[in-house]
What does this fold into?
Amino acid sequence: MSKYRADIGVFGGTGFYEFLTNVEEIWIETPYGAPSDKVALGEVGGKRVAFLPRHGKDHRIPPHLINYRANLWAMKELGVSRIIGPCAAGSLQPHIKPGDLVVTDQFVNRTWGRKDTFYEGPIVTHVSPADPYCPEMRALAIEAAKEEKINVHERGTVVVIQGPRFSTRAESQEYRSHGWEVINMTQYPEGYLARELGICYVNIALITDYDVGTLEHPEPVSHEAVMIAFKQNIEKLQKVLFRLIEKVPVDERACQCADALKSARG
It folds into this structure.
C-alpha cells in the first residue's frame, strides 16, 4: 500500500501539471510492472489528484504497448475511486466536428493481444461491461462542458483500434456504417480495467480530425495534423477537466461501479 493518497485520477495528464499546486512526482511499484511514467500528485479545488500520462511524459509508448494494468493498479494503490480518461479521437460522423467533445457511453473493442483483465484465475470472474462508463461521472462531465459553453455530444460509441497505424478507408467506412461516432486507440482496456477494480471511469474525447473514409472529408489522417489540432483545442479540454474535478464528490458515490464484483463470480 502506497503511503501517498489521491481522490481522483487523470490519465493523459501531460500539460496539466502547471495548473496544480503542491506537486510531487512519484514512482508506484505494481505487481504488473512499471506504469507509463511517474505519477504527479497535486491539488485541484482542494482535492488530491493523481496525473499519469498514459503514453509517458515524452510520448514514447505507442498505444498497443501501454501497460494498462500497471497504470490502473497504480491508481488503486493511491486509493483513487474516480478516474477521468480524456483522449484525442477521430470523428466517424459529419455532425461531430473537430474541436467538439464527446462523453462516450459505449465502446467497441477492435484491439488484440492486450492484457485486459486482472482476473486470470483460479477463480473465474466475469465483470460485466454492459454500461462501461460511470453514469454519475458522465452526467457531471456533460454538465461541466455545458457550463464552459463548449460543444459537447452527450453520448457516443468509441471503436478502439489496435494502433499505432490509422484505419484504411475500407475499415473507416465499416465503422461509420455501424453508426459509431468516435475512433481511438487507448480506450480499451483502460476503462474496463477500472471497472474490474471497482473504480468509476469517464472518458471525454476531444475530436481532432475526421477519420479517413468519411465521404465529406476524404483526406487521410496524419499524426502531425492530430497533434496540431490537439494543441489548438487543449485549453477547452483543460477547462472542462478542472471544472469536472471540482464537481466530483469523493466521499460518496451514487453509482454501482464499486459493486462490479458482486455478480461476477458464481
User: Anything to note?
Assistant: The mean pLDDT is 91. Residues 12 and 53 are 4 Å apart (CA to CA). The first strand starts at residue 8 and ends at 11.
